[in-house]
Structure formats: C-alpha cells, structure tokens
Amino acid sequence: MTVVTRFAPSPTGFLHIGGARTALFNWLYARHHGGEFTLRIEDTDLKRSTDEAIAAIFHGLEWLGLDWDREPVFQSRNADRHRAVAEQLLAEGKAYRCYCAPEELAEMRENARTSGGSTRIYDGRWRDRDPADAPAGIDPAIRIKMPLTGDTTIADMVQGEVTRTNDTLDDFIILRSDGTPTYMLAVVVDDHDMGVTHTIRGDDHLNNAFRQHHLFAACSWETPKFAHIPLIHGADGTKLSKRHGALGVEAYAEMGILPAAMRNYLLRLGWSHGDDEIIATEQAIEWFDLDSVGRSPARFDMDRLLNLNAHYLKNGDPAALTADVMARAGGATGKSLSPDAEARLVAGVPGLAQRANTLVELSEISSLYLYDAPLEMNEKAQAALADPEARARLSALADALENLKLWDEAELDRLVREFAETHDLKLGQVAQPLRAALTGSNVSPGIFEVMAVLGQVETLARLAHATA
RNA sequence: GUCCCCAUCGUCUAGAGGCCUAGGACACCACCCUUUCAAGGUGGCGACACGGGUUCGAAUCCCGUUGGGGACGCCA
Q1: Which tens digit of pLDDT belongs to each residue from A220-264?
Q2: Which residues on neighbouring strands pair with residue A199, listed in sequence order?
Q3: Beta bridge partners of A298
Q4: What is the CA A304 to C1' B25 distance in angstroms?
Q5: Among residues A145, A225, A239, A242, which one is catalytic?
Q6: Which nucleotide is nearest to A185 (CA to C1')?
Q7: Could you report the predicted ipTM of this complex, rounded to two decimals?
Q8: CA-angle at A382, arms to A380 and A385, nearest 5°
Q9: For chain B, which bases have at least one atom within 7 A of a protein Cβ?
Q10: 3-state secondary structure of A155
C-alpha cells in the first residue's frame, strides 16, 4: 500500500511554526516511504478563510522546500459530496435529524458543566424521537449516532493506544441546519476520497480522532493510521501563539533564516536520532520514522534555531549566499554598488559567513565588499586612524604594497609581517589601523583575506583615502 | 469542572531493567588559539518532579500524588 499523507491547514493566517513542523513530518514520512504528500486547504469556513492566507501557506511550504505531489484540494469545493454522505448516513439510519434550537444547546452545555462537567454535551434527545414531533419552522442539523456504551481505542503511531469510554462522546453534528458540512464530516470524507493512509497532525486533534474513527466506521471506510504529534510551545510552556511572538515562516525568511536550518531545527523538535544534531534533509528522509517522535511538547528556542542557521550559513554555497546578499543589498541604500561587488562576495562570503548568524547579519557585514572607496568609518575606526603616526605607517605600508607582484593572501601575510618587523612594531599595531582603513570598522575577517578579496587597486585606493 | 496526553540539565534531547558516579547539543562561564570579531579546541556549571510498589537491581515497569499541556462549538 502506498503511503499517502496530507497537510491540511485552515487558511485563516500565515503558516506558523507548528504548522510548518506538521507539514515537514508529513512530507518526511511520505518521502521516506516513497509515498505521496498531499495538500488540502480546509476553507469550509469561508468567513475566516482568505486568499492571502492560502498564498502564504503555499509560499511558506515552497520556501521550506516541501513539495507536494498533487493539485491541492480545496475542501469547500467538496461540499456537495460531503452533503451526499450525510444524506446517505441518514438514509441508513446511522445519523438523524436534530431539531434543537441554539438556546436548547446552550442550556445543555450549561447543564453539563454545572453537574459534574461532563465532556458529553448533547444528550441525544432527537436520536430516537419520532420525526413527526419535529417543530415547525426549524431547520434540522444532522447528527451521527455514536455508540452509547463500551469504549473506543485508537492505536496512535505516536501516542500509543489511547482509550476513551464512549459515554464521553456525544452525537456530534455532521451537517449544519443550513446544509453545510462540518469540519468533522469534511475531514473524514476528504481523507477517504484522497486515499489518505496516515493522518499526521497536532495532538490537539487527538480527541477528534475518536469521533472521526466512528464516522469512518459508519461510512464503512477504513480509518487511516493516526499519528498525533505534540504541539510546539512557547518559552513559557503554553501553546504557541501570537502572544509569544509566534511568526509565520515568511518572517523567519525575512530575518535571514535558511530553509535548511529551519528544517533541521523543526525536525529535532520532538524527533531524534541518537545524538545526531546536524541532519541534512536527504539524511532525514532516510532516517525519519514516527516511533522516534516524542510525546511531550517542546518549547520553541530561538537560540537553537540561530545556532543551526549559523552552521548552515558557514557551510553554505558561496554563489547562493552571494545572490542572497546582492538581493538584500539592492535598493537598501542610496549608495551605488561597486561593479566588483559580486566578484568580491563570491570570494569573501565564506569568511564573512562564519561571523554571521543570519542572512541579515551576513549582508550587513558584507558592506565592506559592496562599495568602493571612500568608506564610511565607524567611531573605532576613526579613532584608530586619528594618530598621525599610524597614518604615516600606513602610507609606508601602501608603498610596499604597491610594489607587490603576487597579490594573494600568503604573500600579503608575509609582506605585512615583514613590514611590522622592520619597523619594530607588533603585528597588531599595523593590522588594526590597516583594518580601520580597509573596512571602516574595528571588526572584520582576517585582514590579509580582506586585502586579497579587495584586490590591489581597491586596497590602495582605500589606503590613500584613509591616509590623506 | 470532565475527558485525554505529558513529566531526564534553563532549553532540545539520548536512554527501551544492570553499559548511568545519566550521554550529546544550544545557552552560560573559564582557558587555549589569535591582527580585531567570530569560528574552532579544551574544560566547567547543570537534570532522572515526589511517594509508594515490582525486582537481586529501576531514569527505564506498575500505582498514586503533584505539576504542566490539550480538548470539551451548527470553528477548523
């Protein structure tokens, strides 16, 4: 049997971290088994669903690198089918019309809460009542008949066997009085119609699984395998929400998080493979399974994400990183980029990347390669160049540099050290002013590397400006 | 309130009865390396929620307590 998983978000907001992880797990499980990863947009609540949210979900998944195998299903378009199933169940006597008014329901809810707080709200008053009793002028909703006695056990691939006594489950509505299907019905019918074999979702749905299981049974369909993964919590241990600054994945993209880092981070939240921490996606596909998913909720930890991001930045492809920095640099400032900016970045980005945690930081520190002399100097750099003696030294060094034939890092290293030695200076006494002159800052990659990347012409130009 | 789930360093986790004086990673601290900042290296700090069982032996199994979370809509 081919594995078919699904990611089924309701398009009422952006693709948040929790949804992203659910999608990742579904995707990984499908890829691991050579199955299909499908998408279903649960837009049956037309009032809350928006096109922007739908677009945000698609874009978020694309950014994460999670590709889907079929045309996405829009649940709202299947309403006729859902309704037909409800009618069928009604005809078979597995469901019934309920004529309760909203006030009656409210009363029952109040009752249940005050008298013991039972989870079972609806008392089943129309379950066996003669339809002839139906009050005039009330459109009935359709409810499914749930078992009255015994208990139900779900064999969950993550949670294990979970049992609930049936008297805690009431007859829930599958078709509203206005003829629209409820979520519970829509999910079951669509999962069946799409051939979903594994339902991997947040464990806030665990309670729904019991209801859905009986709906599958009523339809004489096989219940898919369930895997309810724990939710992601905020730093305070409660369900991640906007209050925690929970953001959509696009916000992480903007702050310069790499998709590979996000995937790795999300994967390790609740899933593990021994002591392995850095797990490339190909490796994750090979290793991923549901047995190794933990059952306790994990807290979102930005430090960890940043650390992983720094790792992927350090090992990133220079050409790709360069393209990203160029894109972020474009239009950022009024200054025009050096014609050599891109070439310098390709050479300089590896040295820069090990000093950055995000693409934003990377592009900030890239500015030393982006523009030609004269440079903007920060305070520390200005201070380093304030000393006339230091400037005189730089001028002397510039003369030596001008005559250098082979302009590479090793040669520059040799030359500058030699220069320091002849003038009886510590390397730092030469290197720091040099750094200030060449980068406009007191912080940068190794100064010989900077000179090599900049090239002889630009290096001398910057020195000329700094010593003028 | 009722039902369901969970419980190892601050955080993510390893651990499936003896390999555990509990391992790794992030964060933090110190030192080393060093032309700055990082990176890297070395070391340090730091946890089996509690109480009962079961067993020769329990972080691992069972029960209870406590704590946390989730669900209780004609929302999804």
Answers
A1: 999 999 999 999 998 888 888 777 767 899 999 999 999 999 999
A2: A226
A3: A232
A4: 9
A5: A242
A6: B76
A7: 0.94
A8: 110
A9: 1-8, 10-15, 23-27, 34-40, 68-76
A10: strand
